Amino acid sequence: MDVEGFGRRLVAHEGALREWGLGALIRFAPEASGRGPSASLLPSWGDAASGIERLLEHGAAAPIGRGSSGTHMDAQFGYGFATLRGRGVLTPFGAVSLDEGEGRGFRLGWRLAMSRTANVSLEAERQERIAARVAHALLLRGAVRF
Q1: In this predicted model, what pLDDT tens digit does every residue of 84-125 receive, in sequence order?
Q2: What is the DSSP string of 1-38?
Q3: 120-130 CB burial, b ≥16 within 10 A, e <16
C-alpha cells in the first residue's frame, strides 16, 4: 500500500491570483506482475491541479482563475488476470470522479498489459457536467515506453 500527500500554493502580486491545493493518494497495488486486486483513492481540496491541466480542459479562452476550487475525489478499482499464456495481464476496471464544482464522471474498461513497456485499453466513459450536457465517450488508448 502506498500513501502520498501533496500541496501547492501560487501567489501573484499584481494580478491578485491566489491558488492553493492539498491532496492525498492512497493506492493498493497488486504484486509486481500486475495480477490481483488494485485500488486507488485520490481526494483533493482547492486547486490541486496545475493551470496547464485547466488550459487543456477549457482552452485558452477560459480565465486563469477558473477551475475547480472545491473538493475533488477520484477512485479506481480493478483486478488483474494472467493472459497471453502468462506473458500479459488483463485488468477490468471501474473509476469514479466526483468534483464539487464540475460534476461527475464514470469509466469502465479493460486494460491489457502485454509487457512492462506496452499496454492498450478500451474504456467507456460518461461525464455529467454541471450546467452542460451529458457526454459519452468510447476510448481506445495505447502506450509504448522506451
Answers
A1: 888 899 999 999 999 887 889 999 999 999 888 899 999 999
A2: -EEEEEEEEEE-TTT--EEEEEEEEEEE---TT--EEE
A3: ebebebebeee
All three cell numbers of 4, joined, read: 502520498
Kindly list the structural domains of the chain, giving each domain's residue range(s) and its CATH number in brackets, ordered by start: 2-144 (2.40.160)
**Rounded (5°) CA angle 57-40-139:** 45
- Residue type for position 142: G
Percent of the chain with pLDDT over 90: 40
DSSP state letters, 118-129: EEEEEEEEEEEE
